[in-house]
Amino acid sequence: MTSKRTDRNQSAIIKALRAAHCTVIDLSAVGRGCGDILAGRMGKWYMLEIKTEHGKPNKRQQKFSDECRGHYAVVRSVDEALEVVGL
Q1: Mean pLDDT for the chain?
Q2: What angle do CA 74, 13, 57 make, to 5 degrees?
Q3: Whose CB has fewer CB within 10 Å in the chain, the N or C terminal residue?
Q4: Residue 49, exposed/middle/buried by CB under 10 A (0-12, 13-18, 19+)?
Q5: Measured between alpha carbons, how far is 30 from 3 in angstroms, rounded to an integer?
């Protein structure tokens, strides 16, 4: 199995969410369109697809997003990720 490439801002986003007392599960190795991380805060879970400033979801990611029945968001920065989880 080969390693999946992660966006260069992913580690900063994970670090910031954890510093804000969120539970973070790295899902980037799952593939198949699944979001990059699962962030938990105050009893709620948020699936986040991390992209760089101009990055766009690929076809599998868009299909996953369209079919997702939970909270799913594309984020491009620490500030966007914190806002999605209500901080």
Answers
A1: 93
A2: 25
A3: N
A4: buried
A5: 10
Is the pTM here over 0.85, yes or no? yes
DSSP string, 1-68: -PPPP--TTHHHHHHHHHHTT-EEEE-TTT-TT--SEEEEETTEEEEEEE--TT----HHHHHHHHH-
Q: CB of 44 within 8 A of CB of 54? A: no
Token digits for 28? 């980037």
pLDDT per residue as tens digits for the range 21-69: 999 999 999 989 999 999 999 999 999 999 999 999 999 999 999 999 9
Handedness of CA 57, 59, 60, 64 (dihedral sign): positive
Count of all residues that appear for the chain in the document: 87
Q: Is 77 left (phi over 0), alpha (psi -120 to 50) or beta?
A: beta
